[in-house]
Specification:
The structure holds two protein chains of two kinds.
Chain A: H1 2-25, H2 43-62, H3 68-72, H4 77-90, H5 106-126, H6 133-142, H7 145-157, H8 164-189, H9 198-218
Chain B: H1 2-6, H2 9-13, H3 26-29, H4 34-48, H5 74-77, H6 85-96, H7 103-110, H8 115-141, H9 155-181, H10 188-194, H11 198-208, H12 212-219, H13 224-252, H14 256-278, H15 285-301, H16 310-313
Helix pairs in contact in B: 6-7, 8-9, 8-11, 8-12, 9-11, 9-14, 12-13, 13-14
Classes of the chains: A mainly alpha, B mainly alpha.
Membrane topology (chain B): Multi-pass membrane protein
Main location (chain B): Golgi
Transmembrane segments (chain B): 114-135, 155-178, 198-219, 225-246, 258-279
């Protein structure tokens, strides 16, 4: 027993010393490796690295091929940006004019997005899916990107005088956004369920994006 | 415990060196003190606790006894969501086809779930809100004066309140009434097995709302006769399934006709209420009543300070 313990302590001591000497000689380590040192790098680099990580995730949502990247290193920055942007552009005006009170408020959109994604995640957990809570919330949040793009296009279309054709274009754009978002999130999250329950887990995801797409279509700036 | 009597007090209070490697099989052979047993059981509890990372979380087998899981953990509620796609589809189909052989009941008896009721309710809430907006738009599209159409997001909250209350309060009330009025003097154990639990009632009510989803989409067509016809057909199918499913329990009740009538009336009232409130037709007399109410409600939601002058304007 004693000899084993001593050996162990020796090991730890050596390890700590080694760790402390590493930073001086390391300049060429790659991002994400364990001995990467961020203590003496400029803030700009740190921020740029995080922005790049968020950008890469957005790219993965737009071209959903690789399944594991979004899941492995989740963050909530992208969802926060998207959700705040959507809530700000979807909110109604604060005037007390009677005809303008039908729009959702900022908080309502915000709550629908976050609580909605949490409920969808909880649903897949309850169905027995093997995925952690925040990973799933992260994926659902990042997959809002197509609907956000649809929202931007709809806002641009709304600058012009409205007609039936333009309404139809807005409708088509939001439906494409809805289908894209559902498809992407199904690719990322579909594997976590048993085969017999895939549809049960996918249906709430579809409903979630459908409701957000409905908000996008219905938004007018008159 | 017999071991404890033999060990002297000094030995109990002083520190001991126990072998660190011990398996469950060793427990029976090695003479062990009380302390060791306690650490063992503590370790066991810790490993069973729900605070595990979700990544390496494996789904529990369905046949585990539910008493082991505390009610705040996700695992406790998994038994209410233990359904496959085909189960849910079968239950939905059974909920729109009234049959004497009670297939819905047979399904629910074995395993009532909350997946169907929850998502059917959520879908119904948004289906009603969306198609109500479409109906409102169609109505205004025919009216050239009202070009200034705005969609009303707040219908979601009204629909959500109504449906959530209906799907929770009515089953609990019915459960209480069935308990109270059941005659189980002579056939006690039989009565116990026939009276449905609150969970089963919620499940039945949730599935019975399914037919209102297609109905609410079709309600947006602004034809008076069609709207009423849809309401009656949907309420008839849904409540007949409900009554057929609850028949064995109702038969035991002293007030079976009153209860059946109450179930029917509530269901019909819900359907008619949906139709009249969310899909007001311009030709309906109800629309004249509903419109000012709706505008007042919207004004309240927006914190309108001129609330008092609102009804007079309309």
């Amino acid at each position: 027993m004693d000899s084993a313990k001593l050996e162990m302590f020796d090991d730890v001591g050596g390890y700590v010393e080694g760790e402390m000497t590493i930073p001086t000689s390391q300049n060429s380590t790659k991002i994400g490796e364990p001995d990467f040192n961020t203590l003496d790098e400029p803030i700009r680099e740190t921020i740029l690295r995080d922005v790049k990580a968020v950008g890469i995730k957005f790219a993965h949502v737009l071209f959903p091929k690789e399944k594991k990247t979004l899941l492995k290193e989740w963050d909530l920055w992208g969802p926060l940006f998207l959700c705040t942007f959507m809530a700000m552009s979807l909110q109604g005006s604060s005037s007390t004019d009677k005809s303008k009170t039908g729009d959702p408020q900022f908080a309502e959109v915000f709550v629908i997005v976050w609580v909605g994604s949490m409920i969808v995640t909880l649903n897949s957990k309850l169905l027995g899916g093997n995925i952690s809570f925040l990973q799933s919330v992260c994926v659902l949040g990042y997959c809002l990107l197509p609907t956000t793009v649809a929202l931007i296009i709809c806002r641009i279309i709304l600058f012009v005088e409205q007609s039936y054709i333009l309404f139809f274009i807005r409708f088509a754009v939001s439906m494409v956004g809805f289908a894209w978002a559902t498809y992407a999130s199904t690719i990322f999250l579909g594997d976590s369920q048993k085969p017999g329950r895939k549809l049960l887990a996918v249906y709430p995801i579809g409903l979630f994006y459908f409701i957000i797409s409905w908000l996008v279509i219905s938004h007018t700036n008159t | 415990m017999t071991n404890l009597q033999e060990v002297p007090t000094e030995e109990l209070l002083s520190f001991h060196d126990y072998p660190t490697v011990h398996s469950a099989a060793n427990n029976t052979t090695i003479p062990i003190s009380e302390a060791q047993i306690q650490t063992h059981s503590l370790e066991g509890n810790f490993q069973n606790s729900p605070n595990r990372q979700g990544v390496d979380y494996a789904p529990e087998p369905a046949n585990e006894s539910p008493a082991e899981k505390p009610f705040w953990s996700v695992e406790y509620y998994q038994k209410f969501f233990d359904v496959d796609t085909k189960d849910v589809v079968e239950r939905i189909i059974a909920s729109v086809t009234p049959r004497w052989d009670n297939s819905l009941k047979r399904h629910l008896r074995t395993k009532p779930d909350l997946y169907g009721p929850f998502w059917i309710s959520v879908t119904l809430i948004f289906a009603i809100a969306i198609s109500s907006n479409i109906a409102n738009y169609l109505q205004h599209a025919n009216d050239p004066k009202e070009y200034h159409w705005k969609y009303n997001f707040h219908l979601v909250s009204y629909a959500a309140t109504t449906i959530c209350l209906y799907v929770t309060l009515i089953p609990f009330t019915l459960w209480g009434l069935l308990k109270w009025s059941s005659q189980i003097d002579d056939i006690e154990d039989l009565g116990e097995s026939l009276t449905p639990g609150a969970l089963e009632l919620i499940c039945i009510y949730g599935y019975s709302l399914f037919i209102y989803i297609p109905a609410s989409v079709l309600w947006s067509i602004q034809i008076d006769l069609l709207q009423w016809l849809l309401t009656l057909i949907a309420a008839f199918i849904s409540s007949s399934v409900l009554l057929l499913t609850l028949m064995p329990a109702l038969k035991l009740s002293r007030h079976k006709f009153l209860l059946a009538l109450g179930i029917l009336a509530c269901h019909l009232l819900l359907a008619a209420g949906f139709m009249l409130y969310f899909f007001p037709n311009a030709h309906n007399t109800a629309a004249v009543v509903q419109q000012p109410l709706k505008q007042v409600a919207v004004a309240v939601a927006a914190n309108n300070t001129h609330l008092a002058s609102e009804p007079s304007k309309v």
